[in-house]
Amino acid sequence: KCGFSSSIRHDTWYDQTFTNSPVLFPTNDEELCTIVSTAKMNGCKVRVRGAGHSEDGLVMQKLDELGDADIVVVHLKDYTPTDSATDGSTGASWNGFLLEEQSTVKVPTGWSTLELMALIRPQGYLTRTNTAGRIFSVGGAYLNPSVNGNVIEESRYAAQVQSVRTMDAECNVNVFSGQDVKDWRGSAGLLGIVTAVEISVIKDSGLTMTRSAISTRSYDKSTVRSWIADEYNNHDAVELFYWVYEDVIDALEVDYNGGIPFTPPSLTQAYYEEEMRKNPDASYSGGYASGLAQFSEVVAGIIELDKNIGHLVQKVARDTQNRLFDEAAQMPRDGYFLEPDEIPNFNVITSNIKCATDCVNESTEILEISRQFLQQIVNDSNSNWYPNLPLEWRVYTVQPDEMTLEHLEPGKYVSFDLLALRVGADGLASSRFLKSLQEKWYEMYPNAAIHHGKGYGYQNIVGYGSSEDAVQYQNDVILDSVYNESVRVAFQEMMKLYDPTGTFAAGSFLRLLGLSDIKFTPKQYNGDKCFDFGDHDCISDCCGTTFFSSVNNVCVMGESKTLNEACSAPCECIPGLKCDWGPWPWEWSYACRE
User: Is the pTM of the predicted complex or chain greater than 0.70?
Assistant: First the structure.
C-alpha cells in the first residue's frame, strides 16, 4: 500500500479499531522522510500512532480506507532524531536531554512514559502530573488534548509541552516554541509529525504516596462530601476509586513536598532498567500483550454473567492495585503505580465535568447516582451483567489560552471513568449498562466534555443488527459540539498553514472539526470473519463462506460476481443474478445464475 508493505497492520487495543494500513518503524530522519515523501507522491496520508489505547480512531478510522486516500501509519519507537533543525538544534539535543536550568526535558515522542521516567527520575525530577501508569507513548500522552493526570492544580499533559521538533510534508525539520507551540499542543498529528517534545518537569522535593479509604455502606452524603473535600484540600494529587461490592472508596494520594529524602539514583535506575527489560515495546503495545490483559480476555465472559466471580475479580483488582501503589510508594516513588504488564482489557465510559468551584459538589453528585446505579445491579439476581472494575475519578485545572485546538473552558474539572472488563472484542453486555449510566451523567451535566480516545463509537451504525446490539457511547449531538465554530475555523487555518497538502489529515478529529462525516464502524473488512449479524457484520454488506482448512463465514466483495462465476452468498452476485446450485462448469456447484 502506498509503496510500502509491512507484516503489522494498524490497530488499537483488542481491535476496537483495526485496519489494513501498514505500520512502519523508521529509525532516523532520513527513513522518516522517505516514508513521508513516498506516501505523499502516491497520494496517501501519513499518521503517527502511539501505544494504541485510543478507542475511537484518533489515528485513523476503518472507513478512512474506503475514502479518497490510503493511509500509512508510522510508529517512532525505534526512531532517533538525527538531522539538525531549522533553528540549528542538533538531533542529539532532542534525544533525552534534561535542561535543569529550565526544568524541562527533550525526548523523542516514540519513547514510552516508562522511558521518560527512567531518564528524569534518577536525576531527581518528576513529571508535573501523573496518570495511574507508565503505559503511554510520550507523543500519545503529550499530544492528545484530553490526557489528564491527578494533580489538582495542574492541567493536562499537553499543557506541559514547551516546544516541539517536527517534520513537515516537504521533510523540513522545524522547531516551534513560544506562542507557536500552542498550535501543536493537543494537535494529534494533524499539523505534521512531531518527532520530539520539550516538556516541563519538576524537581523532587520529597514526593510521598499515601492511601486513605472510607466505607459507604451506611451512606451519608454529608459525611462522604466532607471526606472528599478533605482529600482535595489536603493533597496535591488524589485519584479516587469506588468499589461497589465492598461499598468503599479508596483515595490514592500524592504530595510533592512530603519531605521524603532523595532516593539514590542507582536504586531508581536499576528499577527502571528492569521494567524496561520486561516491557521493551511499551510505547507501542501499551500493555496489550500482558499476561493480565490476555487472562482478562479469556475470563471476561464468565465475569460479566456471574455476580460472585465479578465480586471476586473486583476484590482481587482492589487488593492488587493497593499493593502496587504501596510498593511504588517505596520504589520508585514517582507518582505512578501501574506498569504496562498490569493493564487488563477493559470497557470504559468517561465524562469531564466543569466544576463551579472546587469540584466537591460535582464529585459527590456523580458518585451518588453512580453508586445507586451499581448497587441496583449487584442486588438484582437476574441481571445479565455485574460490575467487576471500579468507578474512578480525579480533578485537574485548565488554564486560559493553553492550545489552539481547545475543547475546554478554563477552570477546574472532575474526570469520571467507569471501567468494566471487556467480553471478547466489544463487550456488548457491559456496554448497554455503561451507556445507561453515562446518559445519567449527561442528564445531570449536559455540557460534560468527552475524552479524545475514550469517546469511542459515534452512534448506532445503520444496518448493524438491532439498536441494542450496536451500543455506541457517543452520538452526533455530543460530537458536533466538541469544538465551537471559532476553534474549528482557527485550527483549520493552522492545518492549511502547516500542512497545505493535507498529508497528515485523517482520523476521528476530522469528524469533530466538521471536515469529514466518516464515523466509527464496528463492521468487518473483506476477509475478516462475520458473526451473528451476517451481511450486516461486513463493510461490504456481504457475508460469504470459505472452504480452506475449515469452513468460515467471512466478509467478501458484494455484487462483484458475474454470470456463472462461483459464489458462496447471494450478495456476491451482480444485480439480476442469484447464487444458485447447478452445474459449473464441469461439476455441481454454487454460481451466479439468472
Answer: yes
